[in-house]
Every structure is written in C-alpha cells, then in structure tokens.
Amino acid sequence: MLSIDVAQRRARLATRHRLAPSARSTDPVDIARSMVVLHATDPATVYLSVGARGIDLTPVDVEKALYDDRTLLRLLAMRRTMFVAPTELLPVLQASTCDALAHKQRRAYGRYIEQAGVVDGDIQSWLSDVEAETHTALLARGAATGVQLSKDVPRLRTQIDTAPGKSYSKPTSITTWVLVVLGAEGRIVRGRPNGSWASSQYTWAPVETWLPQGFSPVPAEQARVELVRQWLRAFGPAPVTDLKWWTGWTLGEVRKALAHLDTVEVDLDGVTGILLADDLDPAPTPEPWAALLPALDPTPMGWQSRDWFLGPHAEALFDRNGNIGPTIWADGRIVGGWAQRSDGEVVTGLLEDIDADTRKLIDAEIDRTTTWFGEVRAIPRFRTPLQRELTA
After folding, report:
1. Is 2 exposed, middle or buried (0-12, 13-18, 19+ CB in 10 A)?
2. Which end of the chain has fewer CB atoms surrounding its CB within 10 Å, N or C?
3. Is the backbone of residue 291 left (phi > 0), alpha (psi -120 to 50) or beta?
C-alpha cells in the first residue's frame, strides 16, 4: 500500500486549496472550483475565503460573480449547511443532495404543523399550495424578502410552536420554512444581501429569472459520483469517514458512489485513506506560505479528522458546537488564530513558536486581510475561546 505522509498532504493542501502564493488565482469562480464549494454559514466567510486565495481581488469581484455574472450561487446543501458553489455545479448538488434535503425538510415541517393542529385536511397538500402561492408571488415581484412575501401570502404568517410547554418555546411563522424548501428544490435562489457583504439578510428571486438558461437534470447516482470525484481531487487522500461526514450521506451511499470511481487505498500514518487512481504523483513542496483563513473556511471544514494540520489547538479554536473560528496557517498547519476588533484592527494570537521569516509572511497576510475588510466590520456568527480573548 502506498504511504502518504503528513508533509505530502500539506503540500497538496497548499497548492490545491490555492493557499501558497504561487497557487493563488485572479478568479473567484476558479477559487470556488478548487474547493468544490465555499462554506457560507457566515456570509463573511465566502468573501474572506476568496480573499485569502486571491491575487488582486476585492469584495466587489466576489459580488460581481454572485449577483451580476451569477457564476456563483448561494444554496443549502450538504449537512443542511449553506454553501456558495460554481453555478455549473448546481445540477450535481441538486440531484445528489438538495432534492433529498427538500423532501426531508418538508416532512419535518409538516409534522410540526400537524402537531400544532392549525390546518384541516392533508398537511403536505396544504404546504404544497402555500409553496406554489409563494413562488407565484415572487415571480410577480421579481425579488423580495421573506417579510414582503408574507404580506402577499397570508398563510406564510401561520404561527407554529415547535416546542409547546417548554421554557424556550417561541411560536414562529412558517415563512422561513417555505422559503427553505423552495430553495432546496431549486425553485428560488438567494439574491443580493440587504447591506454589506457581511450581511446575512437576503432577498429571494425565482430561479426562472435569476438563471433563465436553466440547467439539465442529472440522475442522482451520477451526481453523487461526480461530487465524490471532485471532493477526492480537492481533499484526497482521506479516510472514507471524512467523505461521509462532508457529504452528510449514509455510508452505503458513499460506498456506492466510490464503486463507480477508480480509486486506491493509501496509508495515512496508520489510517487507511482513499485517493483517485490517476492522482498518485507526489505534489512538489511549495514555497513557504502563510494564510489567515476565516471561521468555517472550506479548508479546515473539508475533513472530519484534522489532527494532521490542527495539532493540539482544537480547544482554543473551536466553539462548543464544533465550529472552527478564524485560523492562522503556516506551511500547511494551523499555528494560531485571529480576529477583527470593533475598530477594524486585525489582531492575532499565536499558539506555536514561529521563526522570523514566518512572522513576516503572517504580517503580510494581516495587511492583506485588513485591506480586504476596508470599512466593513464583520460580526462573528459564533465565538471561540481565542476569538473572545483577542477581542476582549
């Protein structure tokens, strides 16, 4: 069995994830393709992930790709997580993941509505009617927020208590539920934010007007094979458990997709990993590099087993829900964390000793990140121990 050590995995990461300076790109879509998808739970992550991997790019370039050229698209996909993906990948994501997600969410929301006893008759038929009415209203408006749509479709204001009798109980309208299902089905898309690029409030648009060219459906099995192939190219070699975690699929679905690909097993310091059979050539050692990656960046979120680049730093860099915060990287390993203070200053906290040359590389990335932010202040969606310490 071929052995691939940590140094080789870090070399692959540096070039394939476009983190070494010589591997960086001038195209936000090219950067997204390199990572398969960009993590977008926190809106600022998308922009900062591109900035860390870009050459002469600004947030305006990302906005252009998202909202003018529409070569990038924001959607809910693997693990019911928000991503930004190259629009060309939409058929693969839709068939491999989003269709099943829409079905699961509609059934879950239907159970809540049934338990609340606010609807007579067949719940799923009622939900389908509300979805159709909402889609029609959005077509008429062209673009709208959830609040605007709830004025057009009164049934969106139906209040449901998902935890009756509990101390944390809080009735909520079904507006977001309906929009989530329509989005997962690919019938509507998230458009421009209401505010800066760090805002999490979006307008919605019907897919017919946002992507008038449409896309050709792909069989689900074929789509899963293609998504696995792209993940292996970007994140391989890795254990099958990492792939299962990243996709959110069952182990059976993962193994079925792998059976259609020519892969080999490799030894990862005593753990069995998989790699595409045409991807065995060693990656050259890149030049020394450093990077400031944002919270939930797609690089650390690409694997479930992270010891080979994270080391002993999980306690400082993760919150209680398993979210990784902003990280400082040097030559393929995490050496610290960073944060933006309220006055815009980017501050760092090192967790390992580094030499003077690495310190210069990190300082250059601090300058790049500060310039990228400009006047924008990105409020974190969650806080890690080190981020709290740096902004205290």
Report:
1. exposed
2. C
3. beta
